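Run folding on both entries below.
>entry_1
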Amino acid sequence: MIASERRRYILQALSQRGIVSLKDMASEMGTAEITARRDIEKLEKEGKLRRVQGGAASLEDAEEAELAMQQRLTVKRQEKAAIAAFAATLVEEGDVVFLDSGTSMIPLAVELLKRRVTIVTNNTMFFNYIQNPTGRLIMIGGEHIAYYEMNVGVIAQDMIRQFSFDKAFLGCSGLDLPNRRVCGTELQSVEIKRLVLAHSQKKYLLLDSSKFEGKGFMKVCETSEFDQIICDRFPFPEDEKPDNLVSIS
């Protein structure tokens, strides 16, 4: 792929996704990361995108893209807390539970670590919230992506294959309601989610109502693969609601 084709590909990806990672772009275009980085730098100089940590954002999404994961904890805080409280009721003493990356899992982790359960996660944000836990926390290792505060890659996948989870709680970047698809935006995170689903007995998707308008260029799975989809509220007519969706408000 020549330079002009690569840059056109990057811009097209941004128009669809809003945010792209450097690693994903290099992989999809079949080029080295340093080449993809140079393409992004040139496009930024031309005023066509804005660089963010680990990748690039379209100009209209740049401000949102630069919100740190810690700052995102304040977004929909009450809704996430309510969802976590409901999700915690689904976990029993002794369960082995997988918790996904992302800020939606933080209030659930805080609650579950008070109980005698085992949490397995690739979410490195949890380290900031562990205070004399009763539960056990097992951290999945691998390649660390600082922007998303998660571990991914081959090592992470090999570790996940060693487990059989009683329950798994996953997040998403968006839910494509008309097509009943759960979507993601980060390639390696999507791979982790799919693998966890294959190793879990009960599967739950947690999302606040803003995710119904979220972006995601990759399909994680069908909505029917989850035992329950748990949200704070369903902002559409009842006849459009998936059968397995639970609105807690």
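>entry_2
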Amino acid sequence: MTDPIYPRYLERATALLERIAAEEGEAIQRAGQAVADRIAGDRLIYVIGPGGHSQIGAEEVFSRAGGLACIVSFIDDGFYLGHGAARSMAIERTPGYAKAILSHPELAAGDVLIIVNAYGINAATIDSALIGRELGLTTIGVTSIENQRGLPQGHPSRHPSGKDLCDLVDIVVDTKMPLGDAVMQLDGVKEKAGPVSTMVNAFTLNAIMLEAIAELARRGIEPPLWRSSNSPGGDEANVAVTARYRDRVPHL
């Protein structure tokens, strides 16, 4: 039997997570503080993942066991890969599309919008950041600076402005994803394999939420958390938070 490849994949993925923890701690804490500030004022936290796999990030923190119940994730059918990968890509590259998504009756100046997109350059991502600026939101980018800086201007996936997400948000948490996402070069295989964007996005988002939860606890505020409905007493534990947010958070 040949030596397995997956231990090397694990090593590289773990190294990225460790880099995030070691190098992005201040940004993660700043983001967590911003989230906690809004929750302390009984505000909602808004998350968008403008793209096929980036939308998984928005889903990761929505209605999540052990996660905050006050999350509004803009989960959009246009980005959904189940309707076709080519369609999803075309939509994330369409200028103006994000404006149709980013609407919620409570969204107001000072609120937090988390934009999670590993690449940080497509039209829907950049428009989300620009709209956030227009509305006076505090924007947090969960994204890879290396990918943005490494992708040439004029690439068809870029926003017409050529801007990078990391230059447009108030707080950027760099996920360290390498250019192109995949991290494994295998013998006899032309293209790299082994993507890492989903796991680094999920880790970073949950790290921000954990910092917010800890900060709320330090202030003596009970964080509105979900318990898994698949655990003992889960349904009963979620009655109060469901009642609190059912009419405020779409998709609940």
